[in-house]
Amino acid sequence: MQLANQIAIVTGASRGLGRAIAWSLAGQGATVVAAARSLDKLAGLADEARKAELPGSVVPRVLDVTDRAAAEAFVDAVAEEFKKIDILVNNAGITRDSLLMNMEDQQFDEVIAANLKSVFWLTRAASRYMVRSRYGRIVNIASVSGMVGNAGQSNYAASKAGVIGFSKSVAKELARRNITCNVIAPGFIATDMTDVLSDKIKEEYKQIIPCRRFGEPKDVAAAAAFFASPAAAYVTGQVLAVDGGMTM
Ligand code: NAP
């Protein structure tokens, strides 16, 4: 119950890592405002959390993070309804993979908007409330692609490297206000995002992962729960790879 009475926002919570992170924070007692582009899966998550009698709760909300006005209004509405924002987890993200020579402007722009600009908009808006309450935990989900690059993902790697640089700068700006900003860089985690890979590619990747398996969403959720907790007060500007040892 480390997060009792805390208000958390988790974007991209309808499935995959965001869903597991929302579940984990609600499991620690937080009220989790879980956002995605449609309500149906989020409502299912809220129901499951109720049935499981988690100490916290999941509040489903629609948000397309690529819509700046909607993102800002969303943060204001959460602060208005719940009176504060303690935790922001910027998790929503997409891929539009292509080799550089074939990459269209639209593929590049869509990934930057969903993965990087959204993080700027939501963090800027939420930080205003965190500064007022002199408390905040910002957790941004990047990727090992943003640390070491990945062929076919120049757009995605650029967006995630951007998230890392952005987060370190925010960490430096806000540390004295008791607000931390940390990054998780997942490797290969079994979600819809990686399910599209062929079995052959999956096997090849497993050979370069020292743990010899893909991670599970709960592996990332455990790291997010730590960064989001009061216990992580003296940890900021860090990038934690949750990748089975792949990039060590
Ligand atoms: P996923 O299964 O594809 O889920 C993506 C989530 O983001 C969904 O909840 C989706 O919700 C939401 N989303 C996408 N575009 C959105 C938008 N414009 N507005 C609001 N929500 C949006 O992906 P995942 O594997 O869980 O990935 C989560 C994060 O981890 C991403 O940032 C991803 O880049 C990062 N990551 C994943 C892996 C991995 O191996 N899985 C590795 C490294 C990093 P709706 O479609 O319902 O709106």
Pick out its properties:
248 residues, binds NADP nicotinamide-adenine-dinucleotide phosphate, 16% strand, seven-stranded parallel sheet, alpha/beta
Describe the structure.
This protein has 248 residues and is an alpha/beta fold. It is 48% helix and 16% strand. Strands 3-2-1-4-5-6-7 form a seven-stranded parallel β-sheet, with helices on both faces. The longest helix has 29 residues, at 105-133. NADP nicotinamide-adenine-dinucleotide phosphate binds at residues 11-18, 36-38, 63-66, 91-94, 114, 141, 143, 186, 188-189, 191-194.
If you consult CATH, what is the topology?
Answer: Rossmann fold
Order of helices and strands: EHEHEHEHEHHEHHHE
Average pLDDT, rounded to a whole number, is 98
The helix-and-strand class reads alpha/beta
Number of separate strands? 7
**CATH homologous superfamily placement:** NAD(P)-binding Rossmann-like Domain
What's the CATH class label?
Alpha Beta
Provide a concise account of the structure shown.
48% of the residues lie in helices and 16% in strands.
